[in-house]
């Protein structure tokens, strides 16, 4: 699922509390018991795709629980010519619509009716066609790897862009492991934990505009920079970039959101009440809604970069010292180190478990389907 809003229940306010020389400002939206609706999703205009709208609630920062999903709502998409499409709730707080392709010359709005009777409507918005990504380029610099995106609209119609990206990387353990401890016994390891894949989705807001340029061309726009010491560059790296065309209002919304979530959080920074999306409460004009409803396509492009294509960098494994020791079976069952291999009939080569099991650094041993 492609997400259209970089926000969940409380992420939008976390950065307001980052320390600085000035005491952080805590507006009522953060500290009050009020819970505001968060709308996450867009109406996908590509044929054969599924549209997903996610609904949740904000919460007080002192509340440690996961943000509450908005369940059992009636969610519809309505055209200006009165066509109505009802989304079906599947996973908790997630509403989907399949088999409906919006008409290119129509406008649409989102309507949400909650179980409490509250009504929320978006503005009517046109269908936006996103131009293809020309390329995702990269180059090494003195600090690491810089990744950029390039695109253009030959008709000069788009002008406002937003990007998301998913990073995936292959990495290895420091040593292979031939044995493991199961049921307090040393047994042969049947599943390799030497090679893993890590992943990370973008969490920052990345937008650009060509509105002040004569041509609608985005050239070498910086997406992400990876330090040369990062484990992401230790074996093989991939990035999937998704591109969205925005309206000017949509662009302004994300710019406001970026100023809130990516600022230092002092009283001199913009406050959450300044975020103006295109979804409004019809029941209560003072009821804040977070989200921006969009109708359109999304374009994507994936690239791969291998270690051999990069300078001779030395990524940090992140596991510290991996000194090797020799231990007998009794010591191993008592101390529970990682086991590299047998050294002699009664001794084993051992080291720290996180030097052997790549999963302990957050990855998985199942190779992604898109990995060559």
From TrEMBL:
Q: Which Pfam family name is an example for this entry? A: DUF4249
**Which named protein is this?**
DUF4249 family protein
Classification lineage: Bacteria, Pseudomonadati, Bacteroidota, Cytophagia, Cytophagales
């Amino acid at each position: 699922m492609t997400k259209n809003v970089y926000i969940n229940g409380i992420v939008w306010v976390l950065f307001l509390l980052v320390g600085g020389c000035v005491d952080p400002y805590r507006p009522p939206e953060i500290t009050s018991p009020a819970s505001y609706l968060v709308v996450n999703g867009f109406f996908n205009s590509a044929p054969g795709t599924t549209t997903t709208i996610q609904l949740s609630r904000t919460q007080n920062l002192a509340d440690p629980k996961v943000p509450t999903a908005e369940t059992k709502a009636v969610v519809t998409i309505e055209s200006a010519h009165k066509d109505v499409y009802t989304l079906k709730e599947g996973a908790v707080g997630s509403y989907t619509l399949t088999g409906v392709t919006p008409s290119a010359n129509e406008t649409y709005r989102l309507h949400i009716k909650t179980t409490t009777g509250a009504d929320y409507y978006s503005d009517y918005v046109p269908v936006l066609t996103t131009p293809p990504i020309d390329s995702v380029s990269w180059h090494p610099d003195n600090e690491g790897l810089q990744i950029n995106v390039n695109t253009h609209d030959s008709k000069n119609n788009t002008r406002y862009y937003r990007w998301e990206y998913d990073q995936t990387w292959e990495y290895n353990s420091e040593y292979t492991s031939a044995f493991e401890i199961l049921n307090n016994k040393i047994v042969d390891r049947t599943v390799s934990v030497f090679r893993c894949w890590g992943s990370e989705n973008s969490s920052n807001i990345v937008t650009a505009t060509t509105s002040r340029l004569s041509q609608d061309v985005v050239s070498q726009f910086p997406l992400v920079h990876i330090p040369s010491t990062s484990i992401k560059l230790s074996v093989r790296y991939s990035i999937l970039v998704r591109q969205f065309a925005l309206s000017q209002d949509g662009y302004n919304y994300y710019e406001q959101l970026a100023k809130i979530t990516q600022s230092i959080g002092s009283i001199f920074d913009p406050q959450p009440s300044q975020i103006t999306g295109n979804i409004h409460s019809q029941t209560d004009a003072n009821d804040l809604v977070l989200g921006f409803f969009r109708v359109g396509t999304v374009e994507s492009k994936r690239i791969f970069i291998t270690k051999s294509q990069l300078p001779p960098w030395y990524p940090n494994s992140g596991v510290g010292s991996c000194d090797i020791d020799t231990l007998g079976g009794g010591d191993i069952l008592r101390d529970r180190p990682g086991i590299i291999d047998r050294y002699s009939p009664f001794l084993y080569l051992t080291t720290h478990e996180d030097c052997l099991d790549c999963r302990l650094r957050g990855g998985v041993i199942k190779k992604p389907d898109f990995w060559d």
